[in-house]
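#struct-help
A.M.: can someone run this one for me? Single chain, 164 residues.
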Amino acid sequence: MTKLLLSVHVIAAILAVGSIAVAASLFPRFAKLAVAQGPQAEGGEEKGKAVGIAAFLHRICRVYAVAGLVVPVFGVATGAQMGVLGDAWLITSMILTAVTAFLLAMAIIPGQERMLTMARQGGAGAQGLNAAAARLGMLTGVFNLLWAVVVVLMIVRPGSTTGA
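D.P.: on it. Structure tokens below:
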């Protein structure tokens, strides 16, 4: 049972967190490009491809954030099955996972929504675009770094007696 739980946990982490990491990292670039393109057509039509790509990347982040809830659920189940829920490396990983989830839900996704609004409004909405893109890029970098630390903790497992 442990192998099944661990397999689902790892696959979900790769697919969900990996997709968010890539999409969130690419988002600021395409949102800035959408603003730079300006309105493509009159009558409220979408701007060129860049705004569509930015909107798609944002949708990936939102959908995979929900799908990513499987990762900690199966992680806790795996930890319980292995009897390591009280180990410092796992507690630290759970805290970092909660921090990354909070960062994604409260800063990254809302920041993307604000940038999409700027991109759709064009020139008037572009004020503060570079600052917003830089802030969002930094937050995404922190998000990705925290996940890298969690992965290292999962592999190294400091204090583990398994010899891994």
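A.M.: thanks! Residues 107 and 147 are 16 Å apart (CA to CA).
D.P.: also worth noting: The chain has five helices and no strands.
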